[in-house]
Amino acid sequence: QVQVVESGGGLVQPGGSLTLSCAASGSGDSLDYMAWYRQILGSQRELVAGVTPDGRPNYADSVKGRFTVSRDNTKNTMYLQMNHLRPEDTAIYYCYAVFSRLTYKYQNWGQGTQVTVSS
Fold this sequence. Notes:
Elements: E1 3-7, E2 10-12, E3 18-25, E4 30-39, E5 46-51, E6 57-59, E7 67-72, E8 77-82, E9 91-101, E10 104-109, E11 113-117
Parallel strand pairs: 2-11
Antiparallel strand pairs: 1-3, 3-8, 4-5, 4-9, 5-6, 7-8, 9-10, 9-11
């Protein structure tokens, strides 16, 4: 059974840093595109950052220059280094992963990890 599990959330002061991890397991299929999304209660889930299998990142404008997404394909793990955090970054952060088997692709979501930025 495919699992996508986030870790690393917590409470941090404004201006602080936090690193999230997302580990994918339980599949012998190839791990394709991975991304971080976030959702504030009452709002739609939004893309924060994503990374292709060869390491090419993409970012939401709101986090460019502050967040860095990366992945370790040997560990099937993606990371999100978050610096200069702001109160508006407070949200549940979800990991999104696309798997592929020959020409068939499917996706999976993690359960989410809470990030709270507050003094």
